[in-house]
Amino acid sequence: MKQMILLLVLVNISLNGMAMEHKEYENKSQVSTLLASHAIGEGFRAGHETYKIIPTGQVKLISSTNARSSGATSMGATVWSAQLGGFDLSIQDTGAVRSASSGLPTSRYLLAYNPRTNKPAIVTGQIIVRLNNGAKSADIAKEFGLTLVADYPHINAAFYEIDWPDELMTKVSLLKSDSRIVDAYLEVIENISIPY
C-alpha cells in the first residue's frame, strides 16, 4: 500500500512538472509570435546575427524608470513588457499598424527581434568599427559626424555614437563603404538570460 501511494505521488509530481514545462514553452512561443508580429522595422546584421527593429518598442534603463514608468511617455497601451539585464523593454499598441517605412523611434536605445533565436534584443545606439591599420578613429568621427566613445588602437577598433538614432543604419552603411574600415556594425545586447 505504501508503495502504491508513493508511486501515485511520484506520478503526480512528474505530471505536474511536465505541465509546467509545457506552459513555459507555450508562453515563450506566444512571446516569440508577439515579438515577430511587431518586428516590422528595418532589418540589419550585427556580427553573425540578423535583427529587425520593433518600431513600437521602448527600451529604458531600469534606474531611469519610475516604478515601470508612467503611460505619459508611451505611444499607447503596453502589449508586452520584460526586463533584460538592467533594461525595461516594452511594446506599445499604437491602435494602428505601423509600416516599416514609418521610421525608427527617437530613443537612444532601440528594441529589436532576432528571428533565429526568437528573442528580444537591445540596439544600444553605438556603432562598433574595425579599422584598417593606420586609420585614425578621430578622423573618422569628424568626417562622419560621430562621437568617438572608445578607441582601441592596439586592436584597430573604435566605438562611436550618433545624435540621431534614426540615422544608425545609414551611418553603418556609409562607414562600411569607407576604405579605411574593415567592418562596421551596431552594438546589440541579446544574450542575457531573462525569464519570460
Instruction: Indicate the radius of gyration in whole angstroms.
Output: 22 Å
- The share of residues in extended strands comes to 25-35%
The SSE order reads HEEEEEEEHEEHE
Structural class: alpha+beta
The rough form would be described as elongated
Ends apart, CA distance between termini: 42 Å
Any low-confidence stretches, pLDDT <50, length ≥5? 18-25, 67-74, 96-105
Helix percent band: 25-40%
**Could you tell me the mean pLDDT?**
81
Task: Note the total helix count.
Answer: 3
Give a count of the beta strands, DSSP E runs of length 2 or more: 10
Largest beta-sheet details:
7 strands, antiparallel
Could you give a quick summary of the protein structure above?
Helices cover 28% and strands 34% of the residues. By secondary structure, it is an alpha+beta fold. The strands form 2 sheets. Strands 1, 2, 6, 7, 8, 9 and 10 form a 7-stranded antiparallel sheet that branches.
Written description of the protein model:
This protein is of the alpha+beta class. The chain is 28% helix and 34% strand. The protein contains three helices and ten strands; from the N terminus they run H-E-E-E-E-E-E-E-H-E-E-H-E. The strands form two sheets. Strands 1, 2, 6, 7, 8, 9 and 10 form a seven-stranded antiparallel beta sheet that branches. It has a three-stranded antiparallel beta sheet with strand order 3-5-4, covered by helices on one side. The protein is elongated and about 80 Å long.
